[in-house]
Input
Amino acid sequence: MIYLASASPRRRDLLRQMGIEFEAIPSNILEVRRQGELPADYVVRVARDKAQFVERLVKERGLPLRPVLGADTEVVLDGEILGKPQDRDHGVTLLRRLAGRAHEVLSGICVVHRGSEHTALSTSRVTLSPMTEQEIAQYWETGEPLDKAGAYAIQGRAAGFIAFLDGSYSGVMGLPLYELTGVLKKIGTGSA
Output
């Protein structure tokens, strides 16, 4: 049993897929990139910040002490973290920028347990097919891009636009299961 420092339905689904029992406690931390912070360092730091925040909540609430999992996923194009769309115009702009191009998806995890921290990073390379203005508009109207890094969901309708994936499908979804399994085995709570 672990605590998941996230409200993400995708992360919940992935943990269930692996048979990992969890209780979700959203972290609600402010995610702000520091001056000069590299994207890979940023996603691992945010994952750590989320896990540490929830670990403090668990202690304050007197809940049973268990490993706490924090995760963060970002879409990076030409070294720039794209983030989630702020509104329709921003989302359409993100999709236009990604269409027909390769980009990276970085997924960092951190498990805080018994005074130690275990981190891992998954780096995937994704290429979206070229998309027409009509396809972009229609995809936006599905509502799927609203809360997604880079304004797309590989596990949803955007799957039809994924021309190439080199890396972790679950990492692009938001929780790299291979890396997570390795960390859980390391701390002695692994499943599978």
